Known about the structure:
By secondary structure, this protein is mainly alpha-helical.
Amino acid sequence: xxxxxxxxxELGVLGPxxxxxxxxPLELRGPRQRAVxxxxxxxxxxxxxxxxxxxxxxxDDPPETAVNALQVAVHSLRRVLGSGRIETRKHGYxxxxxxxxxxxxxxxRLVERxxxxxGPAAGDTLREALGIWRGEALADLSAAPxxxxxxxxxxxxxxxxxxxxxxx
Length: 168
């Protein structure tokens, strides 16, 4: 990998979208690029079709240039994240993340670990998991067509963890 590809990414969707490499924030440009990254991140290491990305970014009425605009957004993201992070597949793209690079992944792992614990230990682990949240999920992308469904799901996960912490 090239130098720009090395280092640990930190990608956050549990609040406004943010991305950093080794603690240094990376600049994302424009709502389209941010929306594409968020949608890929929510399905990290899984193929996401071009159609799903276009629907998620533009909704029911995409422009005729949507495929081109999507390719431009992905190209720009590759420059920011490193060329090896986003793979092109026959009908879409895959964002490659290592375990723990996505805040949602860290949150989910802690909630799962708390399920194996009891009493105060479970409460502490759930408190740590809930501490990962930096506000409303994808707060800066609420206008993106995909955001309402995704944030609804993420809010349910947060509420369930909060209820479990209270019970613990």
